[in-house]
Amino acid sequence: DAKTTQPTSMDCAEGRAANLPCNHSTISGNEYVYWYRQIHSQGPQYIIHGLKNNETNEMASLIITEDRKSSTLILPHATLRDTAVYYCIVSYNQGGKLIFGQGTELSVKP
Amino acid sequence: DAGITQSPRHKVTETGTPVTLRCHQTENHRYMYWYRQDPGHGLRLIHYSYGVKDTDKGEVSDGYSVSRSKTEDFLLTLESATSSQTSVYFCAISESGNLGNTEAFFGQGTRLTVV
Q1: Does A101 reach chain B within 8 Å, measured CB to CB?
Q2: What pLDDT does residue B100 have?
């Protein structure tokens, strides 16, 4: 599975968009990009995933560059409850090994 | 929320004793995982299962064994607990191994302390 690089921490003002970057320069053609988040000591929560095209759901948007070497998770209107650690994962097969990195600790501030 | 139950939620045990953690699901998902989470290490995969009686090692499998005799239950056993196995353990499930089209659901975790 390809490795990912994320900033260790980020701050975002409440109500503003939070843009979380992820580099995955060694991603292969069959690997998907997944985003999860973990809110203080709870189990991780799935947010969104994509292969090539940009994706949007009720929680977030995922923008994947054309070369697929990086992506950005966008929380359009961050709230205090979005404060969490966000993990970017690339995985060939969701049923196989899902390997987490260190993630980005997002702090949403009033 | 996906039906995943981890038991016990908290446990304190002594060094050298055997410990079994249970993960129970009501979703009939094929894949099940055990992770541990420690400060500074994030989530690390211990073992996973891709079907009844089918398991494989993850990143940090030494000192752990698993069993899956039924679809709904995935057991993690520490044969002889050590203080280095003090951690929070998470179970996860996912529906299938199709190429990247399903997400994993996580349990609430088991906090294990080995003294």
Answers
A1: yes
A2: 53
Q: Which member of A30, A34, A102 has the closest CB to residue B99?
A: A30
Say how many CA atoms lie within 13 Å of B71 toward its Cβ: 8
CB contact under 8 A, B100 and A43: no
Which residues of chain A make contact with B43, given a CB cutoff of 8 A?
38, 44, 87, 100
pLDDT digits (tens, 9 = 90+) for B13-47: 999 999 999 999 999 998 899 999 998 778 899 99
State how far the Cα of B4 lies from the Cα of B46, in Å rounded to an integer.
18
Q: What is the largest CA-CA distance in chain B?
A: 42
Min Cα separation B67/chain A (Å): 17
